[in-house]
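This week, study the protein below.
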Amino acid sequence: MRSSIVVGMLLVGALLACKSKSSGTITVNGAPFEVDTCRSGQANMPQFSGVDFLDGGGRRVRFLQQPNGKVQVYFFPAGASYTDMLGEGCGNMTMEMQNSEVNGVKNIKGTVSANCTGGGNTVVASMTFENCH
C-alpha cells in the first residue's frame, strides 16, 4: 500500500514537472491574451525556432527566432492555420533547449518581449516561459 502511494506521488510530481509554465503579459489589440499553454516550434509542422502561446479559445501568438537574431511575430485567430507576419525586428527573444523532452520534442525555456503592429493587429508581450514542448 505504501509503495503504491509513493509511486502515485512520483507520477504526479513527474507530470507537474512537465507542465508548461509561462508568466508575464501579452495583449492583442489592447486586450489581454490569457495564455493557457506554450508550445515549442519543434512540435509544429513545419518546425520553427521559437514558441507559440495559446489561449483557451484557440488563438495563438507566435514568436519565431530568425538565424540573424531578429524575431518575427504572428497572430493566429481561432481556427486559423495560416496568417501574415505582424512584424519583424520589433522584439527580443532568448531561448534555450532544456534537458527534458515530451513525445520527442525538447522542452524550451526563455524570454520574449515585443511591440509589433501589422495587418491590422498589434501584439505587445513581455513573457518568460519554460517546459514548452
Summary: The two ends are 34 Å apart (CA to CA).
